[in-house]
Structures are given as C-alpha cells and as structure tokens.
Design brief:
Radius of gyration: 21 Å
Helix content: 25-40%
Number of strands: 13
Strand content: 15-25%
Structural class: alpha+beta
Largest sheet: 9 strands, mixed
Shape: globular
Distance between the termini: 22 Å
Strand order of the largest sheet: 5-4-6-7-1-8-13-12-11
Length: 375
C-alpha cells in the first residue's frame, strides 16, 4: 500500500463578475415587467406578484457579495436571464474542458510535474455539458495524458468523492498520480428568475493533483483518511436529462429543469448530518477537534458553515480556522471547498492537520483528513 498525497492545486477564475447590486437591478427589472404583464391577473387574485430582491436580502441569506460567471450579459438581461455561451463545433474543445485545462496546468505546475507523470483524470462536477464522450477523456487528450479518465457526478460533493476514488487507486498501486478536476458552470443550471435562489451560484474550475507521497517534489498534504456518505433526498433536485423529450411536455421550459431546493429543509437536515459525519470521521482516526488547524468546507452558505464549524470545534471558529471564499465566488458547487483549500493552505506548518469537506444534493457528504508535510 502506498501513501496518497495532494501535491498541487489550481483554480481557473472567469474574467467576468456580477455584484449583488447588478443582480438585483436585473431581477427587479424582470419582476416589474412580469407584474405589469400580469396586472389583470394580479388584480383578480389569480397571480401572486413577484417581489423585489435586494442586496441586503442576498447577503443576509447567503453571505455572498459577488460571483464570477462565464457570461455576464445574458444573465443581466431581463429578457434573457441565463448565460449565452456560443455553441462550439465538435472539433473544438468543450467549454468545461477548456476551463479544467487551465486549472489542471496550474496544479501540475505547483507540484512540479507534467502530463507524463499522470495516469488518471477524473472530471467530477455537478453537471456535464454533454452525456458522452466523457469530458474527463477530452481533458486527458488536451493535456496529453496517457492512462484513463472518467466523469463523476455527486453534485456538490463531487470533488471529495473524486479525491477518495483517486486516493484509493494510488494507495492500491493501480495509478501513480491522478488529476481530479471540477469545472463548474453553475450559472447554466441556476434559475436567475427565481428570487429565492437567483444569487446562489457562480462559475469556476478547480484541479487537484494527487500522487504517491514518495514522488512529491516539495511540500505536500498526506491524505490520512477519506470518508463518503449518501442519503437520498429530493430537497435539492434538477429534473433535466436525456429523457426530457420523451415526457408529455417534451422540451418545454419547466422550472424543475433547473436547480431547485427546499432551503429550510436542506439547512435543517444537512447541517447535523455533516457535523456528525466530520466528528465521527476524525474521532475514528484518533483525532480531536482541537487538533484540527483548518476546516475547508463546502462554500454554499455562510450560516451553514458557521453552524457546522461551531458544532465540530465546540466553539466559534476563528476566521483563519475556517476560511470562506463564497463572498467572492458564491456557491461553485463541487469546486468551493477546493478553492478554499487552494487559497488558504500554504501557511500551514509541518505536521498541521486539516479537513476538506463538501456536501449537498443526494444528500451527499465527503471528507478528507490531511496532514501537512514540509520539504
């Protein structure tokens, strides 16, 4: 058995941002138009008028201040309100593959490795831009990696599930090194016309290089233990899929073909599930909560993270113990915890312990216990 280690990470950040103020302006213009069009139905009591959104409402509900997106113009156009990404010819790289390529190159560079050192690519994300061929195989081809690749979808937990799969293969000796990439175009499956969720998501891509610890060329994080768990729930759901045209409504634009959630139930059910998962995981490995230098949590909602951190540590975490990035990136699904890890791990000392945890639809939760090793 070999020891798996994280030796490099990379983050691709889109060039365009949408502030809460911009988002509110677009949404309220849309709401005003719909209310004007439905004035008679509203007067008759047959249609509930759309409420305005506000910067205060968004920040209080989520802690988000802005988000990066692949296309700003379409999202902020009250007559469109979704990203308009140009259709690419099959001979061109896919958008997700192109995003992942940038992040993967950064991860390889940080680790001092090249494509020749990698045996496996896992593309782990909440949505794939096509059913097949696998986006992971396209990324593998663009990087010039030999070996094999496959896609994985466990919604917001995809990154940690991918890390566990890669770490297990490294431990067993079936691969020497693996890239886990998380390209997330969350703006594509968000309903920007829904006041309750129009502010939640942003776009990004992350990459994590795992390899045998003995092959590390610099500082690295030893993967001490991984743990994943799932429990079925409809409280976060997207009904889009390849059977869409076979249904009675065909390809009609339906609300349930985008991101949907029952936010109150999700908070009530997921927070204790995640808190207990982390607590059990560290205790089963002989680790006390006071031993953890850092928690890199899924970046969905600040209140959720604050509650989980307090439950796990038994006190309110200090800002550097549980870093948040969602104020800048919003919820980026599987990539959020990896962004936090990538941007807030270099300062850790030799021997320090930390834990990556992601959670979401499924329900699903994955955690990775890490120990820092300095070269």
């Amino acid at each position: 058995m070999y020891t798996a280690a994280i030796t490099g990470t990379g983050v691709f950040t889109p060039s365009q941002t949408i502030t809460n103020a911009e988002l509110v302006t677009a949404f309220n213009a849309y709401a005003d138009r719909i209310n004007a069009e439905k004035a008679e139905e509203i007067a008759a009591g047959d249609f509930e008028p759309l409420q305005h959104s506000s910067e205060e409402f968004i920040f209080k509900a989520s802690g988000i201040e802005q988000r990066y997106v692949m296309d700003k113009a379409g999202v902020l156009n009250p007559d469109i309100m979704y990203p308009q990404l140009p259709q690419r010819d099959d001979s061109e790289p896919g958008i997700m593959a192109e995003m992942a390529l940038d992040a993967a190159k950064k991860a390889l560079a940080q680790a001092g490795k090249t494509a020749a050192d990698v045996d496996l690519v896992i593309c782990a994300a909440s949505n794939m831009e096509r059913a097949y061929p696998a986006v992971a195989i396209e990324i593998q081809q663009l990087l010039g990696i030999k070996g094999f690749a496959f896609d994985m979808n466990v919604a917001c937990s995809s990154a940690t599930f991918g890390i566990q799969a890669a770490a297990d293969m490294i431990r067993s000796g079936s691969v020497r090194a693996a890239l886990v990439v998380n390209p997330e175009i969350c703006s594509g499956h968000l309903e920007w016309r829904d006041r309750d969720c129009h502010f939640i998501f942003g776009d990004v891509a992350t990459a994590t290089l795992l390899e045998r610890a003995e092959d590390a060329q610099g500082d690295y994080f030893e993967v001490l233990s991984t743990r994943c768990a799932t429990e079925f729930s409809n409280n976060i759901r997207n009904n889009n899929g390849f059977l869409r045209r076979s249904r009675p409504d065909g390809v009609e634009d339906r609300r349930d073909m985008q991101f949907m959630q029952n936010g109150r139930k999700v908070f009530k059910e997921v927070v204790p599930m995640v808190s207990q998962h982390i607590t059990d995981h560290i205790q089963d490995n002989g680790i006390e909560s006071s031993d953890l230098k850092r928690l890199w949590l899924h970046q969905a909602n600040k209140s959720m993270n604050d509650f989980i951190g307090k439950k796990v540590l038994g006190r309110t975490p200090l800002p550097d113990e549980q870093p948040n990035i969602l104020q800048d990136y919003a919820n980026t699904s599987s990539a959020g915890s990896i962004i936090a890890f990538s941007k807030h791990s270099a300062d850790m000392a030799d021997g320090d312990l930390g834990l990556i945890c992601s959670f979401g639809a499924g329900y699903s939760v994955g955690s990775v216990i890490l120990r820092r090793h300095s070269a």
